[in-house]
Specification:
Layout (H helix, E strand, L loop, with lengths): L1 H13 L2 E13 L14 E9 L12 E6 L7 E6 L2 E5 L5 E9 L9 E7 L3 E2 L8 E8 L21 E7 L12 E11 L3 H28 L1
Helix pairs in contact: 1-2
Amino acid sequence: MALALAVSRSATATAEVIRFQMTGTVQVYDPTFVLPPDVVTGAPFTAFLTYDTSVPDSLPDNPRRGRYELSGSGTEFGLALTVGGLTLRNDPTSTFLIEILDNASLAPGISPPIDSFMFHGGHFIGGPPAQLKTIQVFWDNLQMDSWASDSLPVSLDPGRFRRAEVLAGGGAEQPPLGRPYDIVAFVREVTVVPEPATIAYSATVAIVLAAFAYRKRCRRRTHR
């Protein structure tokens, strides 16, 4: 019984972190050929987005717009995009922001209400030199049927959005500051990836169940 209680507490402690794996293909703008040769339009990509769902909404009085700021959260969290031999990720020492619009407007009075999922990662690490490096996620749906609230999502379905993209760009600066390039990653599929702690928890549960089954078999042999 004590072991079972310990397993239960571990599951509760790790349930707040979620990690999405996104896959699809990219469109590349690289007029000066600064990107690796395998980073071309049509190439497959993999992106990982990890965040803590317990982060509070900084707009608690607005039920249609959620704003979640994660500051200096470390390498475990944020966004990483890999295409061929190139990997770009947000700076883990800097703040990144996730915004959720649930039937709300980005610019009230100017743009129409939408459902939207946005990740603003700011400056990214990796890639050719550039003065301005930005990485972000932008999904939108004009039908406004993607969300039931402005909470951080624990599941993502690109099929419920008009546009589901991961965007990374190197700005339009000139040497020696860097050359322009842009990568648009079209998300076709999303899966939830178990965190290491979740895998460990599942393994522990399996061990506990196996131990109970073994003890049950031993009792049966004893009573024969």
